[in-house]
């Protein structure tokens, strides 16, 4: 399952990344495999998505969220 498929209030654990190009950028922002991630808000048109990870809020584009593989 991908992070972009979750709805507001859903929780999951980060499992892996699809794109090696985006992996380093996401890991620098605290999106590390095994870390719990919570969807805080989704914009009315679905982009961006606000999530809480590693103790802080982070806004991701829907395309970036689609690169994060999670397990619910």
UniProtKB/TrEMBL annotation:
Residues 1-72 form the Ferrous iron transporter FeoA-like domain. One of its GO terms (molecular function) is transition metal ion binding. InterPro entries: Fe-transptr_FeoA-like, FeoA, FeoA_core_dom, Transcriptional_repressor_C. This is Iron transporter. It comes from Flavisolibacter tropicus. PANTHER family: FE(2+) TRANSPORT PROTEIN A (PTHR42954). Pfam families: FeoA. Keywords: Iron.
């Amino acid at each position: 399952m991908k992070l972009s498929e979750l709805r507001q209030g859903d929780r999951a654990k980060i499992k892996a990344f699809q794109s090696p190009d985006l992996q380093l950028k996401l890991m620098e922002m605290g999106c590390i495999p095994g870390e719990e991630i919570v969807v805080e808000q989704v914009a009315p048109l679905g982009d961006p998505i606000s999530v809480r990870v590693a103790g802080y809020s982070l806004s991701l584009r829907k395309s970036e969220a689609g690169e994060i593989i999670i397990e619910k």
